[in-house]
């Protein structure tokens, strides 16, 4: 069907895989709940993460819509004759819950824990990660810490929610809520807040270890379990992204751990590190906190960028443009990202010298990101582009990440940051990079690997329509927030001056539209799980190693280490409409395998 | 000094309110400079994406041409050009910021004291008010301090923002050259989340001509009235009004209506049979010592002088039904004038508006 | 950190290999590794990476220490001199270094399949760890009796009153050239921003009088009033750092006990000693952290 004339060297095809599917796969191999909870299979662990992460996303999303609904009127408590004190407290608990759940329990784990676990070993040609039991430990820690954290935060929301409707004594035992914002700034969190700061920080502390252990696992896996022939520069870029992410995870997360411990110590034992009344420095807290939290945003975006590199190449049937530069820029972003935390503190009273250093390095981090965007765009040149759902998300990512990244320029420049800091401009900026970019990459990756993971095809047109709805809804929700911010609308405000109401109304409309799109996505997946067509091993024609095994993969991934080739030599595949998928190209005789290289799989 | 290069002034209003301070100029200039760069690059990427998507869309039968996998020349170009651009942006950003950071030597100083959840402004002669007035045409320096947690001080029209950090005195300076229109002061917002009342922590800035400013300072420095009226004045200016009502409405703190002379229960400890001067004094200086039942320990200690505390007590007494003023006519031992509630209109007809509505509470 | 794990059925185990037809494997080889060497390398790399995270975590506390010490050097000198016993600290250092030696020796024994030696060394290491904790307990008890505990239980703890008008900088008005009703006289220097310290972390108070110290042995009364209020902070930092370190010592004791139990069961030999090696690495890190803590806290002179 396809008559593309790829010029890259193609590897010996693994033909016989496609004739007979195996007897069972990782989903059917062991039965029973215990076989899932105690599994050591990275693929099952990935599925379990998927369920948990998406549930947390749902909770965070529901509260996002609640916030946006409250903000439809500039004076909601007065307008509806609600108790002002309770409404404000409820709002504060809700926005804290939204931010904390989304950051700690959704965005940071999503791509590494779900797709990293599911795909990394297969893409690497390994049988599992280096430490499967540690991997299971990471999952359990995430479950325990995440559930406890959510419980504490929900306690506050439920308490104030019920109180507003006349039942002031609803209290979840131990769940006292959190109203400090996800940033826990001292001294409010250590002295004034009446919420459950100690249990909440302990919950976040526990969840952090899940991240650290996953990072340890991935680094070791990528160093040691690479097959012969897969040098660092023959690794797919998704793995480079996960590698850079893991470096950040292991170096930055411990600092968050100690920061949270210090908050607990301050609050319980009044040690006096952050509270100025007893000798501490509140700005020190900000330094500690942002030393982790800025690299954390690179934990969020680097795997997303890795996913995009995969999607763009496969769906334009082209080798990635500038492989080396993209690989190096991932490492550069990871390392430089550790040096810029002070740009969150330009207005807290630091010296101009300190501020200028942080500002300068912040701009330097922008350059590798820009380089990636240009490389992805150049990859499309002379491609043969299919606009499947994953590709729509990838194209959306490039555009929205451009907006998010460019708006970061305003915030990185010292003088323009002054009026824009802590306004809705910042809120819009980080939603463009966290949601418009990371979420889009996540959805694109989910759609891309959905056939591989579940062995079913989703309904393509529904996916494409949902992608458009999400894109439109997202922009409608967040672009007006840029303008609200430059006009002066501050962050974290439940009631606000009337002149900002119009922006909030547009934003809420967009949020609901986006929510609708995401529900269509969810329906698309659920329907596919139940009634989707059977997926071929390679529905998209990718050349990374996961497409060399069946969909879904067998529980052991590969019987023998597979042959390794340039991951972007897409000419090795051709589309066969009877299979509804791609098969290795037979038209050229396979070249001699170099001595010492493993022969390809025959099943 | 700097003319912002916005093509049409009307477009400028889409993005930002009219700049009203002298430091705003370079900020706005840089904002539009970056904005144009952003618009350029956004449409560049968008255009390329659309063009490539269209030109290179999959068409059955179409041959895919050869395409390079990398081009060092291109990589260096698109690394070098953005680097130059960001260096330029950094430079102007730094320069503008240095202007903000160093106040001129003759700046007029006002001390800003932030607490949960309101501002107090102390003028050089010691007078305080809950709104800010500044003289036009003169540099003003704000010395920011917080009583409890981190707050923010933000005036959008001045492009001015600083965190108010307890334990240190952050400084902010600016100059406004044009007086504000009557009854249209600029807003002050708190931008650093500080708890329940963060959304309602606001104030206003009024720019006065020299004459009006002198009149204003005179008025707030020389407020005179009988002790209950003085107490009412303190009630408003020290932000008691933010948390305590005088008409019985429940707010963050207990209402003052009918407080004097009546019993009160606490979260812990014995009941107080009748509110007296000692209890009020303790509540002002050490509010955490006794917490009224069903309320929370959120009040920051207030630093009032002794005579100010007496004036507040005098005002509170007038709010209680069971308070009978003593028959004596001595002016110092209690309110000799007839108790009136909320005598705010004739005595505090200031141009600035209080951040929270006052006499309706 | 991975040992035998076999929930995937015997068939897969028999089939795994590295493509060379090599089927025999030691019972400790996990199915997803091609060779014992690869498994060992993975375990070591993973452990080193994890130790890196521990260093970063303690690094935060060392950072807090340096910030406060730089801000209040005399406080640290006074408190360390008066309340920290150099002798006990040195004793602890010797104990821990010795235990590191016995631990390393134990790893060597495991490598050489000298099981008796391994058990002896592990027991000695445990005794060293216990000894360390005993000395620490003595120190902490002394602190409790001298009433220099954490937070409010510290005799130097001063809950500060809030900023009052009296403590604000003096009113600062410069004479203006014009006849200005608000003009006054003041000191020009007050208006200039006070230079802030490293990273802008010092407060902008008008500079308080510095402690002038000539002798090495400060007394409390010789400290400047501002410094006196910060003495409690030193103790907080001391307890946080040594406390967190102590928790790691306890965890280390648990790990060594676990290894001892397994050694008793005869699990270790020159073919397989990975857990001993990894616990040894952990123990060396615990020792290393103490080697940094000791001079920073005890030897401030």
Give structural notes.
The complex is a heterotrimer of chains A (603), B (361) and C (301). Chain A is mainly alpha-helical. Chain A has 16 helices and four strands. Chain A has one domain (15-584): Up-down Bundle (Cytochrome C Oxidase, Chain A). Chain A has helices at residues 33-37, 42-70, 76-79, 84-124, 132-164, 188-192, 197-224, 237-269, 282-316, 323-336, 352-380, 389-412, 414-420, 424-454, 460-487, 501-531, and strands at residues 456-457, 533-534, 573-576, 581-584. In chain A, β3 and β4 (581-584) form a beta hairpin. In chain A, α4 (84-124) runs antiparallel to α5 and α12 (389-412) packs parallel to α15 (460-487). The longest helix of chain A is centred in the N-terminal third of the chain and has 41 residues, at 84-124. The model of chain A is unreliable at 1-20 and 589-603 (pLDDT under 50). Chain B has three domains: 9-51 and 73-101, no CATH class; 108-221, Cupredoxins -  blue copper proteins (Immunoglobulin-like), CATH 2.60.40.420; 224-361, Cytochrome Bc1 Complex, Chain D, domain 2 (Orthogonal Bundle). In chain B, the strands form three sheets. A five-stranded mixed sheet of chain B has the order 3-2-1-5-8, with no helix packed on it. The model of chain B is unreliable at 332-361 (pLDDT under 50). In chain B, α2 (24-55) runs antiparallel to α3 (72-101). Chain B has helices spanning 9-15, 24-55, 72-101, 210-221, 227-237, 277-285, 306-318, 344-347; strands at residues 108-115, 118-122, 128-129, 132-135, 140-146, 151-155, 160-164, 170-174, 186-189, 202-208. By secondary structure, chain C is mostly helical. Chain C has helices spanning 10-15, 36-71, 73-83, 86-111, 115-145, 225-228, 231-264, 274-298. Chains in contact: A-B, A-C, B-C. Chains A and B meet through α4, α6, α9, α10 and α11 of A and α2, α3 and β7 of B.
């Amino acid at each position: 069907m396809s008559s593309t004339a790829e010029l890259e060297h193609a590897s010996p095809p693994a033909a016989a895989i496609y004739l007979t599917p195996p007897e069972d796969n990782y989903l059917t191999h062991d039965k029973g709940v215990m076989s899932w909870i105690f599994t050591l299979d990275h693929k099952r662990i990935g599925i379990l993460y998927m369920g948990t992460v998406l549930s947390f996303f749902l909770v965070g999303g529901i509260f996002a819509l609640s916030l946006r609904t409250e903000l439809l009127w500039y004076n909601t408590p007065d307008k509806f004759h609600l108790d002002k004190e309770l409404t404000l407290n409820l709002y504060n608990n809700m926005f804290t819950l939204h931010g904390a759940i989304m950051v700690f329990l959704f965005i940071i784990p999503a791509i590494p824990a779900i797709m990293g676990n599911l795909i990394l070993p297969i893409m690497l040609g390994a049988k599992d990660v280096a430490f499967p039991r540690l991997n299971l430990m990471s999952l359990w820690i995430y479950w325990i810490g995440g559930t406890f954290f959510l419980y504490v935060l929900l306690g506050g929301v439920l308490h104030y929610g019920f109180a507003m409707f006349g039942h002031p004594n609803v209290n979840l035992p131990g769940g006292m809520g959190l109203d400090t914002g996800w940033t826990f700034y001292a001294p409010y969190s250590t002295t004034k807040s009446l919420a459950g700061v100690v249990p909440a920080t302990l919950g976040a502390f526990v969840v952090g270890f899940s991240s650290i252990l996953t990072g340890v696992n991935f680094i070791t896996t990528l160093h040691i379990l690479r097959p012969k022939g897969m040098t660092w520069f023959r690794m797919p870029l998704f793995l480079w992204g996960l590698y850079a992410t893991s470096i950040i995870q292991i170096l930055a997360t411990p600092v968050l751990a100690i920061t949270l411990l210090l908050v607990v110590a301050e609050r319980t034992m009044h040690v006096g590190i952050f509270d100025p009344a007893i000798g501490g420095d509140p700005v020190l807290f900000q330094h500690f906190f942002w030393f982790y939290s800025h690299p954390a945003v690179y934990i969020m975006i680097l795997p997303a960028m890795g996913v995009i590199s995969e999607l763009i190449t496969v769906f334009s049937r082209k080798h990635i443009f500038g492989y080396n530069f993209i690989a190096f820029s991932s490492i550069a972003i990871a390392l430089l990202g550790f040096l810029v935390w002070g740009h969150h503190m330009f207005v807290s009273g630091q010296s101009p010298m300190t501020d200028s250093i942080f500002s300068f390095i912040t701009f330097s981090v922008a350059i590798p990101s820009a380089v990636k965007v240009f490389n992805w765009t150049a990859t499309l040149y002379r491609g043969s582009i299919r606009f499947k759902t994953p590709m729509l998300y990838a194209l959306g990512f490039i555009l929205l990440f451009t907006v998010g990244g460019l708006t970061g320029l305003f915030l990185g420049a010292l003088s323009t940051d002054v009026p824009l800091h802590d306004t809705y401009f910042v809120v819009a900026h980080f939603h463009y990079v966290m949601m418009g970019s990371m979420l889009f990459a996540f959805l694109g990756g989910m759609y891309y690997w959905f056939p591989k993971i579940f062995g079913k095809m989703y309904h393509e047109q529904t996916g494409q329509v949902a992608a458009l709805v999400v894109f439109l809804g997202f922009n409608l929700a967040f672009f007006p927030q840029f303008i609200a911010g430059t006009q002066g609308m501050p962050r974290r405000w439940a009631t606000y001056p009337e002149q900002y109401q119009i922006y909030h109304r547009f934003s809420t409309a967009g949020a609901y539209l986006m929510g609708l799109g995401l529900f269509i996505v969810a329906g698309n997946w659920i329907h596919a799980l139940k009634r989707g067509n059977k997926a071929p091993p390679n529905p998209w024609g990718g050349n990374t190693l996961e497409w060399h095994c069946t969909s879904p993969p067998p529980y052991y991934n590969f019987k023998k280490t597979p042959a390794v080739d340039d991951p972007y030599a897409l000419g090795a595949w051709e589309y066969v409409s009877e299979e509804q998928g791609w098969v290795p190209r037979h038209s050229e005789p396979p070249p001699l395998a170099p001595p010492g290289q493993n022969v390809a799989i025959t099943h | 000094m700097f003319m912002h290069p916005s093509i049409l002034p009307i477009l400028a209003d889409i993005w930002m309110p009219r700049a009203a301070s002298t430091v705003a100029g370079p900020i706005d200039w840089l904002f539009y400079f970056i904005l144009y760069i952003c618009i350029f690059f956004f449409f560049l990427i968008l255009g390329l994406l659309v063009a490539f998507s269209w030109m290179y869309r999959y068409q059955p039968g179409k041959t895919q041409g050869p395409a390079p996998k990398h081009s060092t020349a291109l990589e260096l170009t698109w690394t070098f050009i953005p680097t130059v651009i960001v260096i330029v942006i950094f430079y102007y950003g730094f320069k503008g910021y240095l202007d903000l950071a160093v106040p001129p030597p003759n700046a007029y100083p006002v001390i800003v004291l932030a607490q949960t959840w309101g501002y107090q402004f102390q003028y050089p002669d010691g007078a305080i008010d809950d709104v800010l007035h500044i003289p036009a045409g003169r540099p003003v320096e704000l010395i920011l301090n917080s009583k409890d947690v981190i707050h923010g001080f933000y005036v959008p029209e001045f492009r001015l923002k600083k965190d108010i950090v307890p334990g240190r005195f952050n400084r902010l300076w600016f100059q406004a050259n044009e007086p504000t229109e009557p009854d249209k002061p600029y807003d002050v917002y708190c931008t650093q989340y500080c708890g329940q009342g963060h959304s309602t922590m606001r104030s206003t800035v009024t720019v006065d001509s020299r004459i009006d400013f002198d009149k204003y300072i005179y008025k707030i420095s020389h407020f005179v009235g009988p002790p209950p009226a003085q107490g009412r004045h303190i009630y408003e200016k020290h932000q008691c009004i933010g948390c305590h009502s005088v008409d019985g409405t429940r707010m963050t703190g207990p209402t003052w209506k009918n407080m004097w002379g009546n019993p009160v229960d606490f979260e812990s400890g014995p009941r107080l049979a009748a509110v007296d001067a000692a209890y009020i004094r303790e509540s002002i200086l050490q509010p955490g010592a006794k917490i009224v039942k069903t309320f929370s320990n959120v009040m920051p200690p207030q630093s009032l002088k002794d005579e100010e505390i007496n004036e507040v007590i005098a005002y509170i007494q007038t709010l209680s039904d069971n308070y009978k003023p003593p028959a004596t006519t001595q002016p110092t031992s209690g309110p000799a004038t007839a108790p009136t509630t909320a005598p705010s209109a004739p005595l505090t007809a200031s141009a600035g508006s209080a951040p929270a509505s006052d006499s309706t509470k | 950190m991975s040992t035998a794990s076999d929930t995937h059925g015997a068939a897969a185990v028999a089939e795994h290999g590295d493509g060379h037809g090599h089927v025999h494997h030691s019972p400790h080889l996990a199915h997803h590794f091609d060779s014992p060497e690869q498994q060992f390398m993975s375990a070591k790399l993973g452990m080193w990476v994890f130790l890196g995270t521990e260093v970063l975590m303690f690094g935060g506390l060392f950072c807090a220490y340096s910030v406060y010490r730089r801000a209040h050097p005399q406080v640290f000198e006074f408190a360390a001199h008066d309340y920290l016993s150099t002798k006990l600290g040195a004793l602890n250092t010797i104990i821990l270094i010795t235990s590191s030696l016995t631990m390393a020796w134990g790893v060597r024994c495991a490598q050489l399949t000298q099981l008796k030696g391994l058990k002896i060394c592990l027991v000695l290491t445990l005794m060293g760890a216990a000894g360390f904790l005993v000395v620490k307990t003595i120190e902490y008890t002394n602190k409790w009796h001298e009433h220099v505990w954490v937070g409010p239980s510290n005799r130097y703890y001063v809950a500060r009153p809030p900023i009052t008008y009296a403590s604000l900088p003096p009113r600062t008005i410069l004479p203006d050239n014009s006849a200005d009703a608000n003009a006054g006289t003041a000191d020009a220097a007050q208006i200039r921003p006070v230079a802030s310290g490293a990273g802008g972390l010092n407060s902008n108070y008008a500079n308080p009088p510095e402690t002038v110290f000539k002798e090495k042995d400060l007394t409390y009364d010789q400290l400047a009033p501002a410094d006196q209020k910060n003495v409690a902070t030193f103790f907080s930092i001391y307890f946080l750092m040594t406390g967190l370190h102590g928790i790691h010592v306890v965890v280390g004791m648990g790990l060594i006990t676990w290894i001892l139990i397994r050694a008793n069961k005869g699990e270790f030999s020159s073919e397989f000693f990975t857990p001993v090696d990894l616990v040894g690495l952990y123990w060396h890190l615990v020792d290393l952290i103490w080697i940094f803590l000791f001079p920073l806290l005890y030897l401030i002179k």
